[in-house]
Structure formats: C-alpha cells, structure tokens
Sequence to fold (330 residues):
Amino acid sequence: MKKILFIATGGTIASAKTENGLTPAITSEELLNAVPQVKNLCAVDTVQPYSLDSTNMCWKQWIHVAEIIRDSYAKYDGFVIAHGTDTMAYTAAALSYMVQNSAKPVVLTGSQKSIYNRDTDARNNLYRAFVYAVSDSAWGVQLVFDNKVILGTRARKTRTKSFNAFSSIDYPETAVFRDTRLVTFLRRPADQPPVRFYERLEPAVFVLRLVPGMRADIIPLLAPHYRALVVESFGVGGLPGGEHGEMYARLQDWCTSGRLAVFTTQVPHEGCDLAVYEVGRSVKELPGVLEAKDMTPEAVAVKLMWALGQTEDREKAARLFETPIEYDIM
Ligand code: ASP
Fold:
C-alpha cells in the first residue's frame, strides 16, 4: 500500500460557519474522517501546518510547505495538500518551481463548500486527489478539482462559485475522471532529471494592470520597493504612447536601474507577443523587458519571485524566467 502525506492548510474545505463568516476550523484528521474510503486506498499520515483562509497565505507559507515536502520526500509516495481555492493556483505555481521534476505527485485540492455541508464538492475532490496521488500515472505538482487534474503551472481559478472552479489555461489537462475511471492524457516524460528542491523566493514583484489613460508616474513610485514589474497589458501587448509615450520613458528608467519588467496580457487566453504592433515592438527591445507569452498570471508572478530568489544578477534571473519549467511557457 502506498504512503501519502496529507498536508492540511485550511480553506473552505475545512471551514465552519461563525457569526463573522466562514473560517477554517476543521482539522486534518476530521477532513480524512469525512472521507473514510481514503483508508482503503493508501496509508496516510497527516500534518496541519496552518488553518488559514488562503487569502492569508503568501510566499512564507509556500516556502514552508515546500520544506515539509522536501524533508519527508523519501518517506512518502506522494503528497495531498488541502488548500483554500482563492490562492491555490499561486501555491500550485510556487510548488511547481520549488519542487521541480518530481516523479512523486504533489496534489493540491480544496472545495467550494465546507466538507461538512450536505451538498459539498469537498468529499469528491479530496477523495479524487488521493485516487490520483496513488495512481501509477501520477507525477509532479497537480491540482485536482471537480474531476480534473491540472498542472500546477497551468491552473487558474476561473469561477468563484461553481464546482468547476479551476481551468487548465492554454494547455491540456493532465487527466480527467470519467465517472470513476481516471483517464490520463499527460504522463511524466521519461527523460526528466531527478527531483530538485529550491528554498528561496524573492517577493519584491509588483503586478501593474494597465487601464487606458493610466498615469506613468506610478512606475518610479514602485522602484524603491520592487525588483520586478509585471505589466498586464492589452491584447497581444503594447504600451500606451508606444516609444514616444511617458510610460515608455518611465519604463526605460526602470530598466536602466537594473530591474526586470515582464509583459503579459489581460486577455485570459493565448498570451502576448510584443512584436506584433508598433506600440509593443520598441518596448520589447528594452534591456530587462521579457514576455510571459502564454503563462498564467499566477505562474508569471511566482516564477519571477523564484528566479529573483536564485540570483542577484538580472540577466541570470531573466534566463531562468524564460526557461520552460513544468510546461509553464510555450
Ligand atoms: N476563501 C477561501 C480560501 O481561499 C475560499 C475557498 O477555499 O474556496 O481559503
């Protein structure tokens, strides 16, 4: 029988009603007891590092969860993490960069309703997270939700209320459950190197979502506090005013000071390409400007934190950012 470590961190799945609203209150043991069939699948140990609404999670918790996985990696065949849905895609991205090339599955799940609700999605999601984790085709950092298995670098929360809350963005799903059958589409490539753990993240990354007419002087205000800027631009990408605009001048100052700027798009699918329009082409030439192509916004921000955490050197961080990791960029 396989051995799985169950890591509970809170979220709606573990929430109970209080007079101030839903808050995590259910322990990891209680979660498991609510899905007794899990005991027939595998031997489970549990830890509960947090009991948090995932809105309250950030890079500190991502580092800690990655450490828990690293320190117990040899002892278990896989890991299941119960997590709030609101920032689950960020944690999934963070673990994808901090636990790379893992042959053992690291599976995140959660739910839209508490596990103690009568009409909950929690029991199905938790059970299927374990079914996937013990299956022989399981690998890498994945999110299991509403019968879908999605790569950690490709997952996004795309619905706030429905049970099918997560989508795989611009990439096929790893697997799906058809009724009780697990149908696997993506297997771990045979030539993957051994697992590699990373410990450091640099949180000084700011995401600037452009609005038509936005003032350019926001950029110098950010400079003292951040090493990298993610510019969520329009369409395939560009900067208002192009090469002659105020935004371009401020971005040039940003880049001259040794910082990175990554362009991405507000459009949910198909990514950016700064080379297409005049408003984008000159921006692409600035040293320190990168393109996120088809990466998810969560993966972009977290990959920058990871890349900046590995090196002080902008060019090295840029190369790390551009290198495909766990199918995050095409
Ligand atoms: N606010 C909750 C959380 O992210 C939502 C959920 O889990 O569905 O922790």
